Model the fold of this input.
Amino acid sequence: MKHTRRRGDASAEDLFPAGKHFNPSHDRRFSFRGHAGPFGLNRSAWLLAVLTILAGCAGKKGGPPPVPVIVGKSAVQPEPLSLNVVGTVEPIEAVAVKAQVGGVVTQVNFIEGQDVSAGQLLFQIDPRSFQAALNAATAQMSRDSSQAANAEIQATRYSDLVQKDYVTQEQFDAVRTQAEALKATVRMDEAAVEQARLNLGWASIAAPISGRTGSLLVKKGNIVRANDLPLVVINQIRPIRVSFAVAENQLPLVRKYAASKPLEVHVKTSRTDGRPEAMGRLGFIDNEVDASTGTFNMKAVFPNEDSSLWPGQFVDVELVLAVEPHALTVPAGAVVTGQDGTFVFVVGSDNKAEKRPVKVNRTLDAITVIDEGLKAGETVVTDGQMRLVPGATVEIKSGAPKHGSAR
Done:
């Protein structure tokens, strides 16, 4: 739709021609001598409108808004000097229970996955054949014992007769030899009785160690053979051991601190709170470095009273070598790595952010130890650094933590 300008309407080109300066006193269109201007305004109203517009434009000129951040405090506190690696939980003792005699399994006296004690009856193999063998061996020994006793009496009698020349020396030697042979037979019978008694005892299979049973591999009614497949595997859970490897360049440091006292070892699994799940003591340092990996193995023992550690589990291991009593620490989130190295943003009393290069010693969990660049009690930004530039004004979020967490 085409618009037409009515008589009396003024455009921007009509009011302010190109190349000309605006001067109301020389332009008849803006003559304020007793009549209204082109917009129906007198001179005072026109000037007021112009000043208001200029003031509004000036008010729009201001700095960027403050950057919302979360802050923490640098603090001096005890901090452990430790090595952090990944380890594997393993039982101190693990036994694959096997049958030592063959037969039919008549009883299974536990549930798979159950904790058992050393000496507790697990399986019963049909004992009747073993009992019969024991009875036969006992009877054989009784018979041979009687014969041996009679032969001993005969030998004693012939000993007196040979001295009186009533029998020859040859006859005496034969009687004596027979008595000794029967004594040896009795000893063989005693061994047979003992073996039969062992077989009868092995028909009752007991737990050799205290621990937790695994899957039941042989069910009731199955026939087992001596020293064949395992019936069940028992792993010792309490106490338990954690095995881990450390780089060979740390060996002198470990030996230095381990020579004076038993080293403390902390482990944790996938729990999100970051707290150690168990604490133990270093119990073993391998006597050689693995040439293929450049590491040496160590093992720590844990009481594991709450059974929080499980065989085969991967855990985060912290080997505590010593405790630094006066370490300067900040929350780990405060340290940023850039092209020029590591730095933190320090918030001053004027709420301005200052970029401060720092030298990091080590980071453990949510705490970073700083060697250079900070002093205790300074406020550092722990969240929101991506929007910060040096000198920017910050706004600390309401309810944000003011101090770094301490151990």
